[in-house]
Structure formats: structure tokens, C-alpha cells
Amino acid sequence: EPEVTQTPSHQVTQMGQEVILRCVPISNHLYFYWYRQILGQKVEFLVSFYNNEISEKSEIFDDQFSVERPDGSNFTLKIRSTKLEDSAMYFCASSERGYGYTFGSGTRLTVV
Amino acid sequence: GIQVEQSPPDLILQEGANSTLRCNFSDSVNNLQWFHQNPWGQLINLFYIPSGTKQNGRLSATTVATERYSLLYISSSQTTDSGVYFCAVSNFGNEKLTFGTGTRLTIIP
User: Fold this and answer.
1) Would you call the peptide bond into A25 cis, given omega within 30 degrees of 0 as the criterion?
2) pLDDT per residue over A46-88, tens digit each?
3) Of A79, A75, A82, A78, nearest to A104 (Cα)?
4) Contact A55 B101 (CB under 8 A)
5) Does B63 touch chain A (CB under 8 A)?
6) Going by DSSP bridges, is the β-strand pair B83-90/B103-108 parallel, antiparallel, or unpaired?
7) What is the DSSP letter of A85?
């Protein structure tokens, strides 16, 4: 079964540093997403991406965040100047309209 | 936006027991999925079920879209079923999934 692949699985970074989380969506999917889950809380939507541009973003997704599809296979989330409260599990997902989402295994980001 | 409520919030069962988890949502949906979050934090897709009934082994799910709820059934529970079960929905014209707060299931040997 096709998978969404995320790297790294775990990243520790110092406060104020920039991090890039990477995702390889399923190859024939057209819609891409990032979600976040702070420890013990529910999964929250960050941003959706379609046709090489952001289609929707939440209020969480401020100027600190950016997304990019640098080539035909990768989808990245960049977090600039990380804060302690950015510590969370970040999930990438992709979908084909009408067939549901497939989530990656997540990247656990720890900001110290 | 659409609201998603799950019940019960916590459920503790003996191995071999059956369980029913419920998801209520506040508006019409075009997508409903059930996920199992395992102890490592991974979200495992169980069902894509915006309407109707599906079964996969010991698990089955039913969504009654007109009454805005979905049920997840787990039969003959095993310890590996432990974790948090999330319901997530999206509605027409809006691609993002909205997650419920989850049901934490603990299966005791």
C-alpha cells in the first residue's frame, strides 16, 4: 500500500533555530497538508497545498511557517526561529479527492 | 467551523471484550475517517467512511450521515488495540480535516 514518508522521525533543535521537516506524499495525490499535535492534545490543521500554492491555512500558520514543493516529489514545512511552544508531532498528509487522507508517521519536534 | 465530539473520552477494558466508540459531528460531511494513534504516535488510517458500513477483521464502522454520527466497533479486543482513536471529518467545499478529541482505549491483559 502506498505510504507518505516523513523525515526525520525525531528532531531536537535549539530555540531560535530554523528547522525543515520533509515529506514525500503519495505520487498520484494532488492535495498536501501539514497538521500538528501538541502532546496530549488533538490533531490540528496547519496548511493545505494544491497546484503549487497554499489553498488554506489556519491561524496557527503565521509568518514563522512556510511550505514548499521544491521538486516533483518532496513537500517541506519550514519553521523559522523556533519557540518552545513549537514542540509537537508534525504530520504530513496527502489525498486524492474523494478517497480520504493518508498520513505519514510524523516528525516529533522538540525545541530546547 | 464543523464541531466533532467523541465519546467516551476514556475506556478501559479487559482483553477479549467488545467496545463501541462514538463520533458526533455538527454539519454534513463528505469525508469521515477513523484513525488509531499507536503508542509511538503514528496515525493509522482505519476507515474512510463518509456513509454506510465497512468491516475489516475485528473492526467495523458505521456512519449515519443524515443523523451526523459514526460508530467504531472493536470486537475481541487485544492489547495491541490500545491507543487513542480519532474521528476526523471534512465538509463540502473545505478540504481540511477537523479532528475530534479522541477516545483513549486501554486493553488490560
Assistant:
1) no
2) 999 988 899 999 999 999 999 999 887 899 999 999 999 999 9
3) A75
4) no
5) no
6) antiparallel
7) G
Indicate yes or no: CB of A101 within 8 angstroms of CB of B97: yes
Q: How far is CA B21 from the centre of its chain?
A: 6
Place of cell 454534513: B28
Please identify which residue in the block is written with the cell numbers 482513536. Answer: B85
For every residue of B21-88, DSSP letters joined together read: EEEEESS--SEEEEEEE-TT--EEEEEE-SSEEEEETTEEEEEEGGGTEEEEEE-S--GGG-EEEEEE
Q: How far apart are CA A73 and CA A28, in angstroms?
A: 10
For residue B84, the distance in angstroms to the closest alpha carbon of chain A comes to 10
B63 neighbors B49 (Cβ within 8 angstroms): yes
Q: For the segment B22-47, what is each residue's pLDDT rounded down to a tens digit? A: 999 999 998 999 999 988 889 999 99
